[in-house]
Amino acid sequence: MKSEKEKMLAGELYDPLDQQLSEDRLRTRLLLKELNDTREDQPEERTRILQQLIPNAGDGLWLQPPFYCDYGYNLAIGERVFFNFNCVVLDVMQVTIGSRTLFGPNVQLYTATHPMNPVERASGLEYAKPITIGEDVWIGGSVVVCPGVSIGDRAVIGAGSVVTKDIPAGVFAAGNPCRVIRQLNAPA
Q1: Sign of dihedral through CA atoms 87, 184, 163, 12?
Q2: Which domains are delineated in the chain?
Q3: Residues belonging to the active site
Q4: HSE-up of residue 42 (Cα within 13 Å, Cβ side)
């Protein structure tokens, strides 16, 4: 029989109030409180906390507090990734972020979702879909990335967009819902 955590990571309906998951979220909330309370002149302390909070992060992660996530261990982050102020990552399932990707303030990445059927939704069960963001991506301020979305390498997502579908590599996309506006020039 699968644990609720195994169901969660498999994208199946699971109980978010499960004891193990509740304990994992509590651990994360305590680390987030420590991180968000650090001062700008405490970079070593931030690094120490981030290594515990997000063990699968590459070198040079720059995360500007406040920052919020559900678990931290479901984040796989490349090198030299930057999160500006007040970003939220609901990492119920895997969130993969490529190297040198930039997030503006107030960006929200949601893997968590709920059943459309009201009877299932009333049961309190939920599920998740992974998010994948490529390398060298720039996601503007206040963008929302919905469950199950992939964003290709070198894409730029305009501020305030709601990304509900996959975005290919090398494009500028914006809007609600987010759509491709134009192709970007290839890197030299």
Answers
A1: negative
A2: 4-183 (2.160.10.10)
A3: 114
A4: 13
